[in-house]
Design brief:
With 199 residues, the chain is mostly helical. The chain has two domains: 43 residues, Homeodomain-like (Arc Repressor Mutant, subunit A); 143 residues, Tetracycline Repressor, domain 2. It is 79% helix and 2% strand. Strand 1 and strand 2 form a beta hairpin. Helix 4 packs antiparallel against helix 5, helix 4 packs across helix 6 and helix 6 crosses helix 8.
Length: 199
């Protein structure tokens, strides 16, 4: 079973990278993987589920790369940019597939296995961003840190969406991300209870 899943994963990954999500069919994936269509659907019930299965691994790898870069970056805004930049870089390599992946994460069926897996990765990333903010601003409540962590992922999501929608170069998307992260982190670090910005 594991070998069949790996063959399906590799076939779907290669075909989507070569031709883009919209041009690939499940029949082509099953043929390249050397499995029957019914077997493929036991692992991923739809083409969208195949996309989620493949790009969850891209997301997981990008998150791990960002964590590695951030570990040696003490300044909080720079550490968060280091965590998020690999997500933008990965999306820039395959903008059509990245846009489709984001769409499926946001709007796909709630009971889909691979969508739930992808959302869990995002929630873990947001929690790690909240932890970074909490260390930089110890007075921040758990809820305030959670909301700020979600905002940081939201601007990353928009940076990725803008690249696929309007051909913004990766370097510009990352520079915009850096500016927005710095603004959010500066606001959070100088935030005082009651909603006032400290001096």
């Amino acid at each position: 079973m594991r070998l069949k899943r790996e063959r399906i994963f590799r076939a779907a990954s290669d075909l989507m990278r070569e031709r883009g999500f919209s041009a690939v069919t499940t029949q082509e994936v099953s043929a390249r993987a050397g499995v029957a269509a019914g077997t493929l659907f036991r692992y991923a019930a739809t083409k969208s589920e195949l996309l989620l299965m493949v790009y969850n691994e891209v997301l997981r790898s990008s998150i791990a790369e960002g964590a590695e870069h951030a570990a040696s970056t003490p300044e909080p805004a720079a550490a968060i940019v280091a965590r998020l930049s690999p997500l933008v870089a990965a999306a820039a390599r395959e903008p059509e597939n990245s846009a489709a992946y984001q769409r499926e994460l946001l709007f796909g069926p709630h009971n889909a296995k691979f969508r739930a897996e992808g959302m869990a990765l995002i929630f873990e990333l947001e929690a790690s961003l909240a932890d970074t903010l909490r260390r930089a601003a110890p007075a921040l409540s758990d809820e305030e840190a959670r909301v700020a962590g979600s905002a940081l992922f939201a601007i990353t999501h928009l940076a990725i969406a803008r690249m696929s929608a309007s051909d913004i170069p990766e370097i510009d998307a990352i520079n915009d991300l850096r500016l927005q992260v710095t603004q959010i982190v500066t606001g959070v670090v100088h935030y005082t209870p009651g909603g006032r910005i400290g001096r």
